[in-house]
Design goal:
Number of helices: 8
Structural class: alpha+beta
CATH superfamily of the largest domain: Outer membrane protein transport protein (OMPP1/FadL/TodX)
Distance between the termini: 80 Å
CATH topology of the largest domain: Porin
Number of domains: 3
Strand order of the largest sheet: 1-2-3-4-5-6-7-8-9-10-11-12-13-14
Shape: elongated
Number of strands: 16
CATH class of the largest domain: Mainly Beta
CATH architecture of the largest domain: Beta Barrel
Strand content: 35-45%
Radius of gyration: 29 Å
Length: 465
Amino acid sequence: MYKQYKKLVLVFLIIQILNFQFLYSDFEFTGIGAKQQGLSNAYTAMSDDVYGIYFNPGGLGFARIPELAGGFEFLMLGLKDSSNLSKGFIGYIYPLKNNKGNIGFAWNNMSLVGYYSENTIFLSYAKKIFPDLSIGINIKPMYQIYVMDEYTNSDPIFEQGRKNSLTVFGIDQGILWNFSTNCFAGLSIININQPDIGFSQTEQIPLVINLGFAYRHNYLFNNSFNFTGDMSYYTGIIKFKFGLEKWNQKHTFAIRGGFENIFQKQFSSFSSGIGLYINNVGLDYSFNIPLTNIKDISGNHKISFVYRFLTSRIYTEEQKIIDENILKEKELLKNKITELETQLKQSQEKLSIQEQQFKVSSSEDINKYKEEIDNLKKYIKQLETKLSEKEYEIKPEKEHEIKPVVKPEIKKEKPKTYTVKEGDTLPNIAGKIYNDTSMWKKIYEKNKDKIIRGQLVPGTILIIP
């Protein structure tokens, strides 16, 4: 009798947990990762990393660096029965050579220790079909198991103990679109085939549709600020999620906040988190707590890590993208110079006319045109200098297939450079060159568009001012 009572209490607990998340079957889409929870899991349009395996496989096509990530989540801390409900995740992505796409692998687990567990294996592939559009797919073996005891062994649902597990296969699809310089839109469809996970009767895992938008400031370089929003639809429910993320100047520390709301259920929750990233390693923490319904708990807490494998080949491909953007900027500068030269010529003609009509024109008019000419000359000189500096920043290799660009006819001494070595930091580079570690800011300002996401990468050629 005691075991039967214990089992009923357990079932009641699981139902309450599912009601808290507003879920209706097993293997529900609740999010993974501390960074992602800090943004209230509004991650559909930011999934260009290893976590895209879970949130939007289409985002993996934008990943440029191999990544390994893992994390652990403590669910519903503070429940009076001290139940141990937790989730774990580990994943890896690898960009294939020659633009053949990206592959990913992950394992996700949710368990109520001693009673029940869910395990999902993700096999992912994504590829850019256009420079700014990627599509991806997941194939997911999904394994569910119950721990048997005297009560479950006699339950007909489990065929008197002969059946305590079930395996099905799910399919996810996704798209990520970089429709503007720093703006992304994403769409993911989770469990598109709605596999049946029921033991004794049909119990389909619900299809989830996620639509997201993200503004990622200065995305190609240090990506210092992000705003993201998602709308999720499943089983007649619409959930809205929003998140903000801000990084410090060195891109080593981040703060995050998020909010989600389900109008149909009068449910809302708040999330917050921080991230610490040093060199290639990142550590994140976040918590989520309901603002309505369930009370007297300390919410969900997540801890996760990420490691980025910045090999020389991957860095070369990363630098190629940056170089291509510099080339685009150079073309814009050239066009601006041509435009200003035309304006200068027009101003000189106007000045000549004014000088010929000096007797009927005021000296103020003449001075105005002279000042305009001087300003235009200075601006053209600034643009030409900037254009020349940009030329030194481009170090294309043969595999880049970047056409040579004719340098402006400006005689300028080639600046001093320094090649970053393993373990280098800006302060110790400044110490080597200037014998003054505080001069690192000067080096950073000159090279901040080369310091990818705030990190120094071995092989980077820095310009030394």
